[in-house]
Fold G protein gamma domain-containing protein.
Amino acid sequence: MQSGNGVEAESVAAATDMRGKHWISAELKRLEQETRFLEEELEQLEKMDNASASCKEMLSNVRTRPDPLLPLTLGPMNPIWDRWFEGPQNSSGCRCPIL
């Protein structure tokens, strides 16, 4: 009867070993797939321009081109409007608590 127990123990060990091999194989395939994904992502990043270079280019374009929605003026359209943005001419005449 002991020989029967030995065969049974060997089949249990073989089944456990097969499950372990399957788990290791599945984990290895998952890691290979993740490695491929990361390599593809790295290739895409290497093909992209640096963000700072793109930002500098956009900033230079914005600074050199006038805004199409704003009128282009070389001076004030109405000089009377300037007094609203210059502030008080003398502080004794101003009663405004903010300025």
Residues 1 and 90 are 116 Å apart (CA to CA). The chain has a mean pLDDT of 75. The helical segments are 2-47, 51-64, 82-86.
